[in-house]
Amino acid sequence: MQDVTSDRATEPAVAEGRATIMAMERATWRYTALRALVSVGCPEQLRDGPLGVAELARRCGADALALRRLLRSAAQTGLVRSVPPDEYELTAAGAALLEGRSALTLRYNADPEIWGAFGELTETVRIGTAPFVLRHGNVYGYLADKPALSAVFDQLMEVNLEPLAASLAQAGVFSGAGTVVDVGGGTGMFLAAILRANPGMRGILLDLERVIPAARQYLAASGVAERCEFVAGDFFATVPAGAEEYFVAHVIHNWNDERATVILRAIRAVIPAHGRLLILEQPLPDDDRPHLGKDLDIRMLTLHSGRERSYAEYSALLAGAGFSPGEVIALERDECLITAFPVAAEHA
Questions:
Q1: For the chain, where are the alpha helices, taking DSSP H only?
Q2: Are strands 323-330 and 276-281 parallel, antiparallel or unpaired?
Q3: DSSP-based three-state secondary structure for 164
Q4: Angle between helices 64-74 and 4-40 (to 10 degrees)
Q5: Closest by alpha carbon to 267, among 195, 179, 183?
Q6: What is the C-alpha separation between 196 and 346, in angstroms, rounded?
Q7: How far apart are CA 241 and CA 229, in angstroms?
Q8: How wide is the angle at C-alpha 160 spanned by C-alphas 112 and 98, nearest 5°?
């Protein structure tokens, strides 16, 4: 016989689960509406004040009826609002659609391939590799052929990482002397923060040839270029020698274990016995608590061959590449510095 009492006891929990799912579903619809508004250029057209729907549609090259329905839905977010009889305007909060992290994220997600990768997650789970990766190799190869989108991505990374770079500089984890190599350092945001906080240090930035001009410009604007060396190269092949500290930020998580180990071994080949490796990532907790890295790992599944990892998984990677994991230094936004030291060859 069915236990009716037990069924009734679970009803509130099931109802709560349904409410959670519905809230997530509606949030997806609203985000999609905002992405479409940004894609057709509505925020820029509304920058100087309200416009009638017909005029806004003309300027955006949109269908007026479809745009009206989109605006009506988006107005629920409080980022735009209706102005009778038939106009819309940006609210004060809606300025976030024009610039900054949120605007850049929406513009990045406006790309059909980037956005479409989310819809391929089921296939990714079935075959173990993202269809996006099978088509393009990785997101960086995809961006290399799309200069406009690549510029948006670079801006987004700068906005995302600037507070983290400041947190890193304030943490006081660098010796203040010697040389640090920023492996895959991009435009140099982290290296600039490190060198500004440590006037006695020198830096070497390693990245692809196409990135070096932007890095030179950024580090010059930061006032530290005279203490930097710029090396164009492939961190899978060789890493510059001659430094005491090697810094790798948001690089290892982009690659599977095999490729990540190649990077770490390239560093191990040149790091001195007294050297130190510092990896900046978001180690995942081993329990079910909410964590930004768990959400980002879904992004990794759709666009990359790599993944977010737990501290134990990073430790295993390091050990396999000839390093002994050391102290973990917490920064902001669940980010951590994982320190490691080279193991003597006979013990590696």
A1: 4-40, 42-45, 53-60, 64-74, 101-109, 112-119, 121-127, 131-136, 139-144, 147-170, 189-197, 212-221, 257-268, 292-303, 311-320
A2: unpaired
A3: helix
A4: 130
A5: 183
A6: 38
A7: 12
A8: 60
CA 24 vs CA 17, 20, 27, 28, 178: distances in Å:
11, 6, 5, 6, 50
Exposed/middle/buried for 304, CB within 10 Å: 0-12, 13-18, 19+? buried
Crossing angle of helices 311-320/257-268, nearest 10°? 50
Q: Note whether 139 and 303 are within 8 A (CB).
A: yes
**Catalytically active residues, by annotation:** 253
Scanning the structure block, which residue is given the tokens 């435009």? 187
- Asked if residue 234 lies in contact with residue 205, where contact means CB atoms within 8 angstroms, the answer is no
> Can you give the pTM of this predicted structure?
0.86
Give the 3-state secondary structure of residue 176: coil
Strand duo 245-249 + 276-281: pairing: parallel
- Name residues whose C-beta falls within 8 Å of residue 5's C-beta, 6 or more positions apart in sequence: none
Q: Cis peptide before 85, with omega less than 30 degrees from 0?
A: yes
- pLDDT tens string, the chain, 348 residues long: the values are 556 555 666 788 999 999 999 999 999 999 999 999 999 999 999 999 999 999 999 999 999 999 999 999 999 999 999 999 999 999 999 999 999 999 999 999 999 999 999 999 999 999 999 999 999 988 888 998 898 998 899 889 888 888 899 899 888 898 888 999 999 999 999 999 999 999 999 999 999 998 899 999 999 999 999 999 999 999 999 999 999 999 999 999 999 999 999 999 999 999 999 999 999 999 999 999 999 999 999 999 999 999 999 999 999 999 999 999 999 999 988 899 999 999 986 555
Task: Provide the residue type at 14 as one letter.
Answer: V
Q: What's the farthest any 2 CA atoms get from each other in the chain?
A: 81
